[in-house]
Automatic annotation (TrEMBL):
Protein name (database record): Redox-sensing transcriptional repressor Rex
Gene Ontology molecular-function annotations: DNA binding; DNA-binding transcription factor activity
Cited InterPro entries: CoA-bd, NAD(P)-bd_dom_sf, Rex_actinobacterial-type, Rex_DNA-bd_C_dom, Tscrpt_rep_Rex, WH-like_DNA-bd_sf, WH_DNA-bd_sf
Subcellular locations according to the entry: Cytoplasm
Organism encoding this protein: Eisenbergiella massiliensis
Boundaries of every CoA-binding domain copy: 78-179
Binding residues for NAD(+): 89-94
Regions recorded as binding DNA: 15-54
Function: Modulates transcription in response to changes in cellular NADH/NAD(+) redox state.
Amino acid sequence: MDKEISQAVIARLPRYFRYLGELKDSGVERISSQELSRLMHVTASQIRQDFNNFGGFGQQGYGYNVEYLYTEIGKILGLDKKHHLIIIGAGNLGQALANYMNFERRGFIFTGVFDINEKLHGKMIRGMKVRPMEEMQEFVRENNIDIAVLTIPKEGAAAAAEKLVGMGIKAIWNFAHVDLDVPDSVQVENVHLSDSLIKLSYMINQYENELEEKEKNASGEA
């Protein structure tokens, strides 16, 4: 595809995929952009614009075939292929991710878990043995690993990322609270959990301020 797609459109694709999957599972065969708009709280024109980036998928006055659209968006997202992942960091977050079954339904297969802590070596996490970091390179090569998940403190994240790049990893899902410096050929998705919680705090604060302002205005009018 020659056309460059904006990050805002790309960010909405997983949400379209999720809603369409739920509609498909509910037996809905066809849906209009207006109906999808009401479900997702995205304007119908925005939905049509987003889909037009990839050829449209619909027919004027006919709407969208849910299963076809779900399948095509899945292909765009690369979900028609399986991805093999390893986790670096067998702490609480790493274990929680490894145990989350829904990833496998989407084709993300957790294959190995690694940690520097010798006390964790040999522990079983959903059928996977926690291995020492020294075994990682051979494991990545033998198991065709393309995504690494970092759930370690930020102090060790940069060094771990450098090793992973050297092993030919294609992408890093980074939960360490640090931005990684990697080649353009390696895709990185940073997940800063505290940033997300702080954003929620901001939204609460804004809502409360607006409510307080309305109450002041109402009492002034009275």
